[in-house]
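input
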Amino acid sequence: MPRDRAGRRPEGAAPGPRQGWVASTTLHVIGISLAAVSAGMLACSLLEALTSRRDTAALAVSGLLTGVAGGLLWYLTRPGAIRKRQVFATVAWTWILITAVGALPFILAGTFAYGGAGLVEQVVNSLFESASGFSASGSTVLADFDTPGRGLMMYRQLTHWYGGMGVVVLAVAVLPFLGVGGLELVSAEAPGPSSDRLTPRVSETARRLWIVYIGFTAGAALAFFAADGFSSLYDAVAHAFTVAATGGFSVHAESIGHYDSVAVETVAIVCMILGGTSFSLHWRAVADRPLPYHRNSEFRSYLTMLGLAATIIVLLLWLENGLPLGSSIRAGVFTVVSLGTSTGLSNATGPGSPSDYVLWVAGAQLVLLLLMVVGGCSGSTSGGIKVLRMRVLGLTMLRSVRHTQTPRAVIPIRLGRDVVSETVVSRVAGFFLLHFVLMACGLLAVTALEGDLESSLGAVVSALGNMGPALNEAGPTSNYAAAFSQPARLVLALLMVIGRLEIFPILLAAMDLAVRGRAALRHGPVSFQHLSRRLESFTESRSDDP
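output
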């Protein structure tokens, strides 16, 4: 096998002779992802054993089962050639299996067994919590925050952290042989219209993204620990996982409102804004001089959007809701940043408090709903359509207006100094249309499954945008178990995974599965008849023997 001067195999080259028995990139990536999640489960079981000791067995057994399954898949397979259709199937099936396996600790620990819940409801709630965690949504069906042990609650936070940067990106970081296929895997999982290749080697790009992610998480934990109101390192690390992934889980029922601290809320605001910014931009800020943020047009639009939305809501709360100016600023700015970055944390101290936005005027709620649709920057851990796509859509609409005046003019779409290709414009338009078609279908399904229109609309927008709390009965001081039936929760869980993967991987994997199923049904009888004929001829030949 040819190698470079450093002795490394060139990226894209075939692996060595002993790299597993079955050539399957999908199974190999799934194995690595399961092994990574297993490590988190086992670490949290150790934390549980040292502290609460209530859910140690559930975490340990889940970790061992997941680790054995992942280790076998990792060892017995090797990455092979990656076709276009295989890329989306790999990402989709990895996330579906991770979500299902991630529910095991909740099921085995009986986390949702309170209130006379049966086994089916416990499984549904566990799947919902797992989907919300790995998709970094933050929607929850957990009402009892005191019974689960510290290790299990930390595992719940850790699901956010895994899903924020992405388990497939983590797998690519340890696979040096994927080449261009690895870039396609990263593109299929990473939020935004395109992936940003930081280095010629895709695995090195994935490693750099994870280095920035880990560093950002550590910095957020130290900032939270130093802030007034955080009394333990446990709380600081738990919320650092959340803000790094722009998810909404907390170890307290009141979320950030539990601390009722301006210092804690300020740290959370800064971390949420950074979490909603492209991590490629963060890497360049660390590696390059001077800082590149002010040169990035999407980042400027992102800050402008948050600033305008915060100003409008603060004025509405002050003038229409009658809140004091200080309370309006504190509630408005935190909520705008939280939902505008798709984090979903809340600083409401309880129902009826200034930050309980289900009691805000309709104009303020409409602004929040629009923020939930948009989300943060591409290449960040944020959900939503993304600021970059909204800018491309806006410029495309302006170009259409100009074309009515000058039909023959060639008007390119520009973002700063860069010209956006027509291929990207077409993909953005297609994504936008698919997003709203899926939103309409989800709204129809959830309202048909016993949900009121306002709550269902907010929940569907929140699920597709990975936002967390929604409107009305699913607001920041409530939970989804009280607002939606079991089937509706399963629909919302599916929408969360679809939204995290930005529609295309799940949709194309489902289409591929449908095509394969139809082909199997069509060719199945023929194959059976062929086998029957072969068996009859074999029997006749044996009977003719002397």
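quick obs: Residues 199-502 form one domain.
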